[in-house]
Structures are given as C-alpha cells and as structure tokens.
Amino acid sequence: MRAPPSFFVDPAEPWAGQDIVTSSILVRHFGVWGQRALHAPVTIVQHNRPRHVLVSIDHWNALLAQVASGTASTAGADDMIDAVSDLVIAADAAGVIAATSRTARAQFGTLIQSGQRLEGILAANDYALVRDVLRAVPVAGPKAVVRLSSLTPPGRTIGWTIVRYDDGVALIGRDDGAAIP
User: Fold this and answer.
1) What whole-number distance in Å separates Cα of residue 170 and Cα of residue 67?
2) Distance from the CA of 20 to the CA of which of 84, 115, 174, 179 falls in 20 to 30 A?
C-alpha cells in the first residue's frame, strides 16, 4: 500500500515543510501517519486550518523536559505546546510553571506566567491533591486523571490529566463545563 497524500499548503505558512495531513486522511490511514509522527511532528488540518499536532510520546516528553529544565529552544517548544487545543501547563518538580499553551494562557491570564507556581491557579485543597498525585505517580508511569475546581471561570470544573516526566509534570486539561456541586 502506498502512503496517502499529504495536504499541501502555501510554503510561506509557518508549518510548511512539516508532514501535513487532513483529519479525514489521518483517520483512514492512522498507522502510516502514526509511524511518521515517530520521526517528526505531523500537523493535522481540519477545514483548511491547522488544528492539531501528532507527535510521539517520546518526542512530547523530551520537549516538556527541555522546557522545564530551561534547555529547550523555547520557540519550537512553545509552538508545539501552542498547537495543542487543550489547556497545557508544564512545570518543574517544585511546581514552578515553565511553559503554557495558548489555550491555557487565554483561560488563566496572568495567573500562569512562566516562573509562577502551580498553586496560583488551583484552590488550596486542589493543589494538595495534585501534590499528592505527583508523589504517587512514577516518572514515565501511568497518568493520573482528576477533576478540579477552576478559579477562572469560577464555579466550574476542569478535568486534568497529570503526566510525570524526568524533572517535572505536565497538566493537560479540558474545561468540562460542569458546575461545581
């Protein structure tokens, strides 16, 4: 079976030169595109606009580790994290925020600037839960999933997936729209 065609874009676009695929082709040929993502990020296009980026878990963990340690070329890592539509917050082992996605910055504003601590975006009892989860989840081990109350907007919850990597943590969240009971 030959490889499916890529989605072609204007070479002046910032994602030009990457593997690019429409979401419909990705669904039909996921194995091919999954293999490509093992070597380089794949931009997924919906309605003629880049919407997502498919990367291998090793690439993702390496990017997060580089951002948290300060050794990353932040332009590439920031672009990668900004391409994710979920709320993404990368922090070091001490809970100091190293990088955030565009979506997270839009939701939390100045509460999640680099150098600030995670407890600035979480209620005190929620931060204690996250801290306990960080102690319990091994590095490169299973993920933990928790629902926490949101400070912005207040009165709602966010479902967070917490992933440990070498020197820190990534919180990947979605505002699930649920009101706090």
Assistant:
1) 11
2) 174
